Amino acid sequence: MFWRERRCWIFDLDGTLTVAVHDFDAIRAELALPVGRGILEALAALPEHEARERFVRLEVIERELALRARPADGAADLLDALTRRGARLGLLTRNGHAIALDTLSAAGLARFFEPAHVIGREAAAPKPSPEGVLLLLSTWGAPPDDAVVVGDHGSDLVAGRAAGAATIHVDTAGAFRWPEHADHCVRSLAELLP
Ligand SMILES: [Mg+2]
Question: Angle 124-146-153 (CA atoms, 0-180°, nearest 5)?
Fold first, then answer.
């Protein structure tokens, strides 16, 4: 597979490196946000005084979830194999940076990532924008055709494709809803091991 030998691997966090626990509809309901729209996008559309209080509540919810994070099947083995063959590892999440680091720690995966290569919503426009992918590639001085983006949602795949990287969709359910944006589809990260 053409993506196997690539040296820059950028992962989504929730539902990709960790077992999915976020019930986004429940979070939307708790924050009184509309159904069917991204939480960050819905918050950004509110007047600032209304958004601020909900944003604080969102961070409380995310922190609670972070502490319960568990690694996805095959995550540690894959990251270990990539590290040993000298790949660069980055993480791009719609979560905040501090919460992403807490999530990695709780899931036992923090040792694989330099904190500077964990890109949260403070540092780049949220996926599906390719900004975070391009930021990591520019940090590494690497071209997009040496990069792979791995994620469980269409927004991860769209971001990777828009940046010019290869895209891998991980879907434990095997439904693979975004075939047009994925170069490769797997049900488990373990399938990506050499
Ligand atoms: Mg995800």
Answer: 50
Q: Which domain holds residue 95?
A: 2-19+71-192
Question: Whole-model pTM?
Answer: 0.90
Q: How do residues 47-106 score in pLDDT, each as one tens digit?
A: 999 999 999 999 999 898 899 999 999 999 999 999 999 999 999 999 999 999 999 999
CA of 153 to the centre of ligand 1 (A): 6
Do both 34 and 95 map to the same domain? no
Distance 58 CA to ligand 1 centre (A): 16
Q: Evaluate whether 76 touches 108 at the Cβ level (below 8 Å).
A: yes
Q: Could you tell me the distance, in angstroms and rounded to a whole number, from the CA of residue 186 to the centre of ligand 1?
A: 14
